[in-house]
Specification:
CATH superfamily of the largest domain: NAD(P)-binding Rossmann-like Domain
Strand content: 15-25%
Number of helices: 9
Subcellular location: Cytoplasm
Largest sheet: 7 strands, parallel
Bound molecules: NADP nicotinamide-adenine-dinucleotide phosphate
Family: Belongs to the DapB family.
Pathway: Amino-acid biosynthesis; L-lysine biosynthesis via DAP pathway; (S)-tetrahydrodipicolinate from L-aspartate: step 4/4
Number of strands: 12
Function: Catalyzes the conversion of 4-hydroxy-tetrahydrodipicolinate (HTPA) to tetrahydrodipicolinate.
InterPro entries: DapB_C (IPR022663), DapB_N (IPR000846), DapB_N_CS (IPR022664), DHDPR_bac (IPR023940), NAD(P)-bd_dom_sf (IPR036291)
Order of helices and strands: EHEHEHEHEHEHEHEEEEHEH
Number of domains: 2
Shape: elongated
Structural class: alpha/beta
Length: 269
Amino acid sequence: MGEQIRVAVAGAAGRMGKEVVKMVLEDPDLSLVAAIGQPDDEGIDAGALVGLRNCGVQLTSDLELALVESKPQVMVDFTTPASAYDNTALAIKHGVAPVVGTTGFTTEQIELLDKHCNDKGIGGLIAPNFSIGAILMMKFAAQAAKYFPHLEIIEYHGDQKLDAPSGTAIKTAELIAMNREELRQGNPQEEETIEGSRGGYYNGFRIHSVRLPGVFAQQEVVFGGFGQTLKIRHDSYERAGYMPGVNLAIKKVLEYKGMIYGFDHFVDG
Ligand code: NAP
């Protein structure tokens, strides 16, 4: 067996963070060296937190100290849009490759983090979606847009999600825009009698964000042509479904330079 990859997890006490902690502890090729949570989480053993045996890594809330003391090679971040940018910048500052699943980054932030990564000579990944099915849904939608330029994106998430539209919807929209001339859809005279009814505007098409309790993560891209519609849909049912993708990202990110945006780049090789 080769050297284990040393991993820190930020947001370790969150729903995605706990899945990551469990996945890292269960993979003999990975070593959990730090788990970062909120001040209330301090001192909890990361293994016990996820229903495994104590692993000797206690949750801390001081990310910078944890990075300096535990010397991870990779930091996985599943926190909140408000924290993730600073966490990622801090990881890069200490030469730790970030693998970020938190959504809500702006294009300017990604560009800045890419510069930081390049200055430091390390790789990083910001991936709005780590599920292979979702990556395929985005690629198929981008392909379909060549033949069906009229489309709308509808994404569904739980009602506590902070950012809208979802990172996956934005990434899908960007991929579609690469395959389709900007085309303002709908009736040029259309008017909203209730503001926001037509959804968010991107490159001439609309994105709708549904937020409901009981929903996990789904997205459909609906295409309309003469006498026909085409729907490309992906449904995620549980958080564990993202873990094969996060595991692959931890193992591949060290081969890259600069900040990669989108897990599709890692899937293609
Ligand atoms: P969550 O359960 O709210 O977890 C976030 C955790 O991070 C919470 O425990 C939060 O603590 C903690 N936190 C916030 N700031 C922190 C900081 N500076 N240091 C350490 N911990 C901090 O949310 P989630 O469902 O796990 O989702 C997390 C993010 O991942 C969201 O942006 C979501 O959209 C995204 N997501 C991405 C994918 C993907 O495939 N890329 C999949 C699912 C979800 P408090 O609760 O005390 O604030």
